[in-house]
Amino acid sequence: MSTVVGTLQNAWKATELRHKILFTLLMFLVFRIGAHIPVPGINRQVIEDLLATGALFGFFDVISGGSFRNFSVFAMSITPYINASIIMQLLTVVVPRLEQLAKEGAEGRKKITEYTRYFTIVLAFIQAIGLSYGLKGAVINPTIWNYLLIAVTLTAGTAFLMWIGERITEKGIGNGISLIIFAGIVSALPSGLVTLYEYIQVGTANILGATFFIIIAVIAIAGIVYINEGQRRIPVNYAKRVVGRRVYGGQSTHIPLKVNQAGVIPVIFASSILAFPTTIAAFFPDSVLGAWFANYFNFGSFLHSLFYIFLIIFFTYFYTAITFNPVDVADNMKKYGGFIPGLRPGKPTADYITKVMSRITLVGGMFLAVISLMPVFVIMATGISNIYFGGTALLIVVGVALDTMKQIESNLLMRHYQGFMK
User: Rounded distance, CA 414 to CA 213, Å?
Assistant: First the structure.
């Protein structure tokens, strides 16, 4: 804790970092103001009743920072952008044109980002149409123009959130999209604690169960930090090279392979994908599909949990493969005379790194799945229902906080290096 406070104090003293932090906080303020601007023509009492029907909508409300409960302009949160990013990353692997753009460096990534923005608007409008029609019981005057007005308002809110996220990434500190989700979850924490206190007051929950819940949360946070910081260090030696009168190399170092290389991205991706069909089915409870989802695919059911685990592990491998390429690491080592003891440079080194990475990625993915399903275990152990601030939210909050602190430390380190060079 003292290290974190010291880092924040040093960051505040640095003018450039202070401006970045203030800009990020200002964007948070805009986000929170927007979360209380209601969409016109909606009866919010119907939304309140809908939230009381299940944990799925409660989780939406937590992710959106209360925007779904208020049915504000940010009710859809940043989910369409996340879905668009998932689809674009999948297409990057299978579409040659996008794959070529991804390999062109900054300019190529800029073009892919532009395509993602356009795709986000399309997905947001489709989702907004479905949301406004699905909540037709909450529409005060259900005409086609009112549906279009609600859909356009929600789409504009998502587009504005996307803009805020990109501005935070560009001018603030940390990943803007992740920080928006982080801010939404954290803003719901005080109301969650008040609800827990009210449960104890009315007898819905007891002191022992609440204490057990807090202990589980603390242990989960410690476990998340431990896994996120966990590494498998592969030793690397560099051969000595004599160039003129100078001797290069000869030192030993290591390749730090993170147990959770993908961070919280797999959880966000898996939640977004699973939420889509479940949400659509929830809008049609009287249909056969809606009844099937309610009976067999609701949150905490065996089928839902099974798909959740599978998607988290899949996206853990997928995102790790995108962000870490063992072949490139092996080629760079070979180029500079590096080798892993007992292995030849080149393909054998790449195969070994791939094998190690696959094993620790499985551990990281399974840990993410267990933490994400933590609310199910907590409800069974404590008897406290409607826990929206559960494992997924905890993973996002802790993961984003750690990543943001690392970025602050990196900026501070760069600043000190610049001062030394000057």
Answer: 41
Quote the tokens at residue 54: 């299940």
pLDDT digits (tens, 9 = 90+) for 304-323: 788 888 988 998 888 888 77
The predicted structure's pLDDT at residue 391: 65
**160 three-class SS:** helix
Give Cα 166 distance to the centre of its chain: 15
Residues 375-402: tens digit of each pLDDT: 777 766 666 655 555 567 777 788 788 8
Residues 298/280/263/236 CA torsion (nearest 10 deg): 100
Q: Which domains does the chain have, with CATH numbers?
A: 15-203 (1.10.3370.10), 206-383 (1.10.3370.10)
Structure tokens at 415: 């600043």
d(CA 261, CA 320) in angstroms, rounded, equals 6
> Which residue matches tokens 């390999």?
103
- Which tens digit of pLDDT belongs to each residue from 52-61? 655 455 556 6
pTM: 0.73
**What are the residues whose beta carbons fall under 8 Å from the beta carbon of 348, sequence distance 6 or more?**
none
| Type of residue found at 334 | K
| Burial label, 194 (beta-carbon count in 10 A; 0-12, 13-18, 19+) | exposed
